[in-house]
Write a structure and sequence with these properties.
twelve-stranded antiparallel sheet, about 25% helix, alpha+beta, single chain, Anthranilate synthase, about 475 residues
Length: about 475
């Protein structure tokens, strides 16, 4: 059993300068609360230089250690990460993360989740070919607690090499943290043209197919999405800094891998585990922000009072109650918040909260596996919804609608739903936007909702006319 070793750094109200200093290190990753004025935005996490790098692609997982030794396995990815994390145990839960796993689980990893194993192998093309999962096992982290106004360098590793690295990093950061500035002089991402794989004509055709499935009783709701893409030049990191400034969210992230960068401005928590308590906060229901205060208030009230959006939200709440029921004690699942309207820079969202108590003997990875992928971005029932998505969407989703987050050595976990998330690799970028379709949906409104959700990235790329 390991104890947490904590060293105090000067408080970092803004994580960007410090991460600019760290991001030249291997597999540097930032989980960013956006310093939003919300109880959800308490912690920022930064990590780099993992002792293990775990990449899963098409059923094969490759583990690379610090010495360059590579091990390949066909073991279930969720079970593999669970086993690796069990090597170090830490009972101190005073901090959300004390080292552990951090990275992403892509939507297409669904074939390994117990929630959706029967879905057939996906033969569709990918827009950008990412691993299905990329997770680092990190010995240390920089954690900022915005409630306590503290920035801490932490580890629970007792390995001599890890402790020596921590001392070296502490010396490096504590002496210069107040003078760190971004050294990057290249411009943000630039594109000449933005393409989309499903235009209005194709969207309407897919919408009509979904309506037929709904009428036949195959499903109750389908999340139908479009993929935007372009060639690009410039810095993904500089674009993330602009994105964070223009569109702060409580579950943002910047992940820097050798194979590409991931910029996430997600407003949605997927699964949080603290001790034996689990929470999920599905979003279902969206309106754009207004151009005037009066229009803004009208749109917010329209969402709050929409019976259609409430019905959609309730469907997903019921789905997630069922998913959590697979790993929670009977009678412990509750819905403390239902149909809460939350405000973001470009949209309003209808959000609910579902909680439960995890059964003895089960871990955060068990909960994640049984709930993956999130019901708010599939539809209901989940298995059939995923089959229809696979039939109608032109590309595999990759990281879109997967999850970004951490699983700590102390058992804690927090993950987002990877919506409002951009991938950049080999001078190409892509991002997605979608929404839930039910029986009384109208095609023009649903199509416009995808454009509303794409607005933040289009603004970032200086695209005036959203496809």
């Amino acid at each position: 059993m390991s104890d947490i070793l904590i060293k105090t750094l000067p408080y970092q109200a803004d994580p960007l300068p410090l991460f600019s200093h760290l991001k030249s290190r291997s597999w540097a990753q930032l989980l960013d609360s956006g310093n939003c004025n919300t109880e959800l935005a308490r912690y920022d996490l930064m990590v780099a230089d993992p002792r293990l790098k775990i990449i899963s692609q098409k059923g094969t997982t490759r583990i690379t250690d610090n010495g360059g030794k590579i091990t390949e396995t066909l073991e279930n990815t969720f079970e593999l990460v669970k086993t690796i994390l069990a090597d170090i145990s830490c009972n101190d839960r005073s901090l959300p993360f004390c080292g552990g796993a951090l990275g992403y689980f892509g939507y297409d990893l669904a074939s390994e989740s117990s929630a959706s194993e029967p879905v057939t192998t996906d033969q569709r093309p990918v827009m950008i070919d990412l691993p299905d999962m990329a997770i680092g096992i990190y010995d240390w982290a920089v954690i900022t607690d915005h409630f306590e106004k503290k920035t801490l360098l932490v580890t629970c590793s007792e390995q001599k090499e890890a402790l020596e690295e921590l001392e070296q990093l502490y010396s490096e950061l504590s002496g210069h943290v107040n003078s760190i500035t971004s050294r990057e002089a290249v411009p943000a991402l630039q594109v000449s043209q933005l393409d989309v794989d499903i235009d209005y004509t194709h969207y309407k055709n897919g919408f009509n197919h979904i309506q037929n499935y709904l009428k036949d009783g195959d499903c109750y709701q389908i999340n139908y999405a479009r993929c935007y893409s372009s060639s690009c030049q410039g810095s993904a990191w500089e674009s993330y800094k602009l994105l964070r400034h223009n569109n702060p969210v409580p579950f943002g992230a910047y992940l820097d891998f050798p194979f590409g960068q991931i910029l996430s401005a997600s407003p949605e928590r997927f699964i949080k585990v603290s001790g034996n308590h689990v929470e999920t906060r599905p979003i279902k229901g969206t309106r754009p922000r207004g151009l005037t205060e009066k229009e803004d208030s009208k749109l917010k009230a329209d969402l709050s009072n929409s019976e259609k959006d409430r019905a959609e939200n309730l469907m997903i709440v019921d789905l997630l109650r069922n998913d959590l029921g697979k790993t929670c004690d009977p009678g412990t699942i509750e819905v403390p918040e239902l149909f809460k309207t939350e405000t973001f820079p470009t949209v309003f969202h209808l959000v609910s909260t579902v909680t439960g108590k995890i059964k003895n003997g089960l871990s955060a990875l068990d909960v994640l596996r049984h709930c993956f992928p999130g019901g708010s971005i599939t539809g209901a029932p989940k298995k059939r919804a995923m089959e229809i998505i696979q039939e109608l969407e032109k590309h595999q989703r990759d990281i879109y609608c997967g999850a970004i987050g951490y699983i700590s050595f102390n058992g804690n976990m927090d993950t987002n739903i990877a919506i409002r998330t951009m991938t950049v690799a080999d001078k190409q970028l892509c991002f997605w936007a979608g929404g839930g379709i039910v029986a009384d949906s109208e095609v023009e409104n649903e199509f416009q909702e995808t454009r509303d959700k794409a607005a933040a990235f289009c603004q970032l790329l200086n695209i005036q006319d959203i496809p």
